[in-house]
Amino acid sequence: MQLKDNGLRFSPITIALHWVVAFSLLAIFGLQLMIGQASDDAVRMALGRVQNLVGLLLFLVSIYRFWARITAYHPLPVGTPNPIEVIISRSVAVSMALAMVLLPIAVWASRCAGGEVVELPGGGWLPSLLPVNATLKHVVDVLFNIGASAFLAGLALHIFGAVKNHFLLKNNTLKRMLGKHVEL
């Protein structure tokens, strides 16, 4: 079994973790919507703990993904893409992988600086290593907003590229990200 990406294809680990991250992000966004709609404080707290757990798992997976991304060869693109598009897509992918490490840290730092305990389901919690400080919280929140905006722009480019490859160029890029063997 291929454990690392190479110049011809993604490893099954990379493909699986790509979709784990995608569905984890959807879960975090969905949980945030549910927290906003919940009328009961107990429900909001329970959903918040689940959201914290998904964020923690996303952070741990993202550390590995970022390391794997910068230490392995990235497969050649399918078809004959424009070299500028390849540079942009690879830059966006590395930036998104880094953001998936840094943004959860920023959320944790913001909550710590705001005096909140980051609770997990089952009574667990993440340690607070930062002092309670309103100025620090403000700085971290501003940095988070900048990073989240950049991440969402990168995500939009990523989705645009996937849609373009699948529907406009009609190549096998999506099939490759679903684990199928494709010819370059």
From TrEMBL:
One Pfam family here: Ni_hydr_CYTB
Cellular component per GO, a single term: plasma membrane
InterPro entries for this protein: Cyt_b561_bac/Ni-Hgenase (IPR011577), Cytochrome_b561_oxidase (IPR052168), Di-haem_cyt_TM (IPR016174)
Membrane topology (UniProt): Multi-pass membrane protein
UniProt KW keywords: Cell membrane, Electron transport, Heme, Iron, Membrane, Metal-binding, Transmembrane, Transmembrane helix, Transport
GO MF: electron transfer activity; heme binding; metal ion binding
Residues annotated as transmembrane: 15-35, 47-67, 87-110, 142-163
Domain Cytochrome b561 bacterial/Ni-hydrogenase: 9-179
Cofactor dependence: heme b
Chain segments annotated as coiled-coil in the UniProt record: none
Domain of life of the organism encoding this protein: Bacteria
Primary site of residence: membrane
SUPFAM superfamilies: Transmembrane di-heme cytochromes
Compartment(s) where it occurs, according to its Swiss-Prot or TrEMBL record: Cell membrane
Record-level GO BP terms: respiratory electron transport chain
Family listed: Belongs to the cytochrome b561 family.
Stated name of the protein: Cytochrome B
